[in-house]
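> forwarded from #structure-qc
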C-alpha cells in the first residue's frame, strides 16, 4: 500500500488555518543551504537538485535496485528553514537578498546515510551539478512547535505569524528562536497565489 503523507501524517502536513501545538519528531532530509532572494535562479536551481535526489530514491526499484525496507510512497514536499542576516534584522522592510535559508526534502525511514551518499554519487555521474557537492543528508528534530496553515501569497505570511505569536502569548508559550520552518504543500507552478497552502512552524517552550 502506497504511503501518502497527506493522509498518513496529517498532523505535520495538513494542519488547520489556526495555530496549534505539535511535537515534531526526527526526520531525515536531503538539505541545501544558501543565502539570497528565493525568487532568483540560485534558489530554483537548488530546489531542482533536491527534487532530482528525491525522485532518484523513489524510482530505484524501476532501475532494479530495491533498498532494504523499501515501500512505495509519495515524494515529500519541499521545506525551508528561514533566517535573516544580522545586518538586515533591524530594517523596517524585509530585504529578501539578506535571507538565509536551508531548504530540504524529507526522505523515508529506509534511507540510510550510506544509501543517500550512493544516490548523490549516482546523480553526479548521470546529471552533474555543482550543488550536488553541497548536499547534506541529516536528521532534524524540531520538537515542540506551534504551527498553522497559511492560505495565500508568501508575502502575506506575516499576518499568520502575528496570529501565531498572539496564540503563544495567550497560552503560556514562548517562541525560542527567530528562525522558522515553511512546508510548501502547493505546487507554486500550478497554483494561484491566493490559493497557495504553506505550513508555518516555529519552535516554542512552555512558560510557567
Amino acid at each position: 500500500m502506497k504511503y501518502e503523507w497527506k493522509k498518513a501524517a496529517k498532523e505535520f502536513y495538513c494542519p488547520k488555518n489556526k495555530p496549534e501545538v505539535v511535537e515534531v519528531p526526527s526526520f531525515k532530509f536531503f538539505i541545501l543551504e544558501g543565502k539570497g532572494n528565493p525568487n532568483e535562479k540560485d534558489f530554483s536551481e537548488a530546489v531542482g537538485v533536491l527534487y532530482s535526489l528525491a525522485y532518484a530514491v523513489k524510482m530505484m526499484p524501476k532501475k532494479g535496485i530495491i533498498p532494504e525496507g523499501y515501500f512505495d510512497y509519495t515524494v515529500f514536499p519541499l521545506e525551508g528553514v528561514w533566517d535573516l542576516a544580522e545586518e538586515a534584522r533591524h530594517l523596517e522592510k524585509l530585504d529578501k537578498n539578506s535571507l538565509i535559508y536551508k531548504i530540504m526534502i524529507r526522505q523515508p525511514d529506509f534511507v540510510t546515510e550510506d544509501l543517500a551518499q550512493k544516490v548523490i554519487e549516482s546523480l553526479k555521474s548521470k546529471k552533474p551539478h555543482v550543488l550536488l557537492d553541497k548536499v547534506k543528508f541529516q536528521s532534524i528534530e524540531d520538537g515542540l512547535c506551534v504551527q498553522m496553515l497559511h492560505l495565500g501569497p508568501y508575502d502575506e505570511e506575516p499576518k499568520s505569524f502575528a496570529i501565531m505569536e498572539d496564540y503563544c502569548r495567550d497560552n503560556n508559550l514562548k517562541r525560542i528562536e527567530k528562525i522558522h520552518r515553511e512546508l510548501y504543500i502547493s505546487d507554486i507552478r500550478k497554483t494561484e497565489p491566493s490559493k497557495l497552502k504553506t505550513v508555518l512552524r516555529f519552535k516554542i517552550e512552555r512558560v510557567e
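QC bot note: The mean pLDDT is 95. The first strand starts at residue 20 and ends at 35.
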